[in-house]
Design the sequence.
């Protein structure tokens, strides 16, 4: 197989059940990097067996730090950023080669990420969407904690092809992972805005949560996925409730602490 001069960065932790398929799907790349958060399972050995360079990096509370470490370590200018539970399709690789063959002046590309919930393909509900994760490392840095985004100046292109995403094998796994993610999101919100009033926080817990459910299940037609769409939309909205409930708890505990110190 002729290798493509695009670096692939995969962020992972304890991903032995998923990372093999991800690595198999990117063997077309001449530079594969796994940024590993000190896994305690076989993730590192699997990655090294597949020819990847492994960089171990303790999680700082921001996935952007992992993405940027991957950019700094990449041997090529163009970098495809993935998670360990992503699978790159053959169609995507073909279109990637076509796009990068000419100099079109873009500094990053967005492409479709097709989510699978309990191995069910989600074509509706907002879970078959674009993400801007093929980037020119000379022009892009990542920012944010849980939902990291590329920061750039320049033009964005589009690759009309899918990368498949298989994040959850069970509802319990979804809840466990997003319980951790909501810790990070709540802490980030509290650091930025520690003095938000109770009414604002309550509105975020109630109305924004309901709005997110309506947006996914109704506006973006998640109902067309049957029970899968209903369960996913409810869980997706609940993430927001958890974030703001934890923010409220932090503020409450800080107020109690301040009162005791007086």
Sequence:
């Amino acid at each position: 197989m002729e290798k493509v001069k695009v670096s692939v960065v995969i962020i992972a932790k304890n991903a032995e059940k998923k990372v093999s398929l991800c690595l198999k799907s990117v063997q077309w790349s001449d530079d594969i990097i796994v940024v590993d958060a000190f896994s305690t399972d076989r993730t590192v050995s699997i990655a090294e067996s597949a020819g990847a360079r492994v960089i171990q990096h303790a999680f700082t509370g921001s996935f952007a730090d992992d993405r940027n470490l991957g950019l700094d370590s990449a041997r090529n200018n163009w970098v495809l950023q993935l998670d360990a539970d992503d699978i790159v399709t053959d169609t995507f690789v073909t279109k990637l080669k076509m796009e990068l063959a000419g100099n079109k002046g873009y500094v990053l590309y967005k492409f479709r990420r097709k989510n699978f919930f309990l191995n069910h393909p989600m074509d509706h509900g907002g879970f078959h969407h674009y993400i801007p994760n093929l980037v020119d490392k000379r022009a892009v840095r990542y920012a944010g904690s849980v939902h990291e985004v590329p920061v750039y100046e320049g033009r964005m292109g589009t690759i009309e092809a899918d990368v498949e995403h298989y994040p959850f094998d069970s509802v319990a796994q979804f809840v466990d992972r997003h319980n951790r993610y909501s810790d990070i999101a709540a802490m980030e919100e509290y650091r930025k805005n520690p003095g938000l009033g109770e009414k604002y926080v309550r509105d975020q817990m109630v109305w924004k949560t309901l709005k997110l459910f309506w947006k996914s299940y109704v506006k973006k037609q998640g109902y067309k996925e049957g029970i899968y769409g209903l369960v996913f939309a409810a869980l997706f909205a609940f993430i927001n409730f958890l974030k703001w409930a934890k923010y409220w708890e932090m503020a409450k505990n800080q107020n109690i602490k301040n009162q005791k110190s007086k």
Summary: The domain at 4-168 is CATH 3.90.550.10 (Spore Coat Polysaccharide Biosynthesis Protein SpsA; Chain A). The chain has a mean pLDDT of 94.
